[in-house]
Automatic annotation (TrEMBL):
Catalyzes the decarboxylation of four acetate groups of uroporphyrinogen-III to yield coproporphyrinogen-III. The lineage of its organism: Bacteria, Bacillati, Actinomycetota, Actinomycetes, Jiangellales. The keyword Cytoplasm applies. This is Uroporphyrinogen decarboxylase. It is found in: Cytoplasm. It comes from Phytoactinopolyspora halophila.
């Protein structure tokens, strides 16, 4: 798997076509996912190795994607240290007692590998099923995780988080350092068990200015990425075009790009860095000729970078038709033979 198309591309070794996988390829767009998840909470299914193996494999079997993403969630390490957090259907992660004062930090103890032994077991189980397909491990980046902890749940404006980072910078940096330790440990556990690539998801970092990202977030995301040495590291954010260079400089081999920025322009902003992206997930609901033209454009623009991993600009929307994703994979797979 160290020689897979995905790993080679992440290392900047070009091949005839880009590897392809989709963020949120497992999940609610798949009928087989909805079926196995029936009657079981999201976080319980993440802690059951048999469920993790089955759900991770579902899109691999269905689409033949070039990478499998470990079925988990960014809040799993927080649950594993005993924090009262649930994923509520239709809402997302909800924290019973948000972290807002120095005393609240005491509830954030370090994550030990034994806290997530279910993940080790699940990765090992997956290696037996995956054959040549590499496994992508992941964790939430400190800012995105801290936003859930401070806001208490999903947030549109991240206002309490931004107010806290500016008003109580010492508390903020302590909070981010603790969360960074957990994310780093969660990634290391997945790599030690056999993950071939990792992705750090900073989905909401695009809410920040470049200056705030640099001062309040970058040092902590750097800690996480630098703690993983043996496999390629993908650093992903949404709406982060204005500081892609900082995200690359944090220690990423690959930078994820959303649909707002063309890949050739992204390549100018982060010279020498492999890119991942960037089909708008909403366009998967458009007619096929539209999608086909977008794929062609993105693959062409991706040639400006030293390597390109084809993906969406963000996760698969639950309303996506799985047959369309299958057609996207098939189309990319024919590119090398043309
Ligand atoms: O019951 C369900 O099916 C809940 C939906 C769901 C799923 C399938 C959630 C709740 N998490 C997941 C799995 C998941 N989460 C994966 C693995 C599956 C795959 O990619 O194929 C991954 C990589 C994540 C990571 C994740 N969770 C992120 C980062 C990626 C992104 O989409 O930006 C974030 C922000 C979360 C939080 C989260 N978990 C779930 C939801 C609905 C949310 C977002 C809520 C919000 O809007 O803030």
């Amino acid at each position: 798997m160290k020689n897979s198309l995905l790993v080679r591309t992440c290392r900047g070794i070009r091949s005839g076509r880009p590897p392809v996988w989709f963020m949120r390829q497992a999940g609610r767009s798949l009928p087989e996912y909805r079926q196995v998840r029936e009657g079981m909470s999201m976080l319980e299914s993440c802690q059951r190795p048999d469920m993790v193996v089955e759900i991770t494999m579902q899109p691999v079997r269905r689409y033949g994607v070039d990478g499998a993403i470990f079925f988990s969630d960014i809040v799993v390490p927080l649950k594993a240290i005993g924090l009262d957090i649930e994923i509520e259907p239709g809402v997302g992660p909800v924290v019973a007692e948000p972290i807002r004062r120095p005393a609240d930090l005491e509830r954030l103890r370090p994550l030990e590998p034994d806290d997530v032994s279910f993940a080790t077991e699940a990765v090992r189980g997956l290696l037996g099923e995956l054959g040549e397909t590499p496994l992508i491990g992941f964790a939430g980046a400190p800012f995105t995780l801290a936003s859930y902890l401070v806001e208490g749940g999903p947030s549109r404006h991240h206002e309490r988080t931004k107010a806290l980072m500016h008003s109580q910078p010492d508390l903020w940096h302590d909070l981010l350092a603790r969360v960074a330790q957990m994310s780093a440990t969660y990634l290391q556990v997945q790599v030690a068990a056999g993950a071939s690539v990792v992705q750090l998801f900073d989905s909401w970092a695009g809410a920040l200015s470049r200056a705030d990202y640099e001062r309040f977030v970058l040092p902590h995301s750097t800690t996480v990425l630098q703690s993983v040495r043996d496999v390629p590291r993908i650093h992903f954010g949404v709406g982060t075009s204005e500081f892609l260079d900082l995200m690359a400089g944090a220690g990423a081999d690959v930078v994820g790009v959303d649909w707002r920025l063309a890949l050739d322009e992204a390549a100018r902003r982060v010279p020498g860095t492999v890119l991942q992206g960037n089909l708008d997930p909403a366009l998967l609901l458009a007619d096929w000729p539209v999608i086909e033209a977008e794929i062609e454009r993105i693959v062409t623009e991706g040639r400006a970078a030293p390597g390109h991993v084809f993906n969406l600009g963000h996760g698969v929307l639950p309303s996506t038709d799985p047959d369309v994703l299958a057609a996207v994979v098939e189309h990319i797979h024919t590119l090398s033979t043309r």
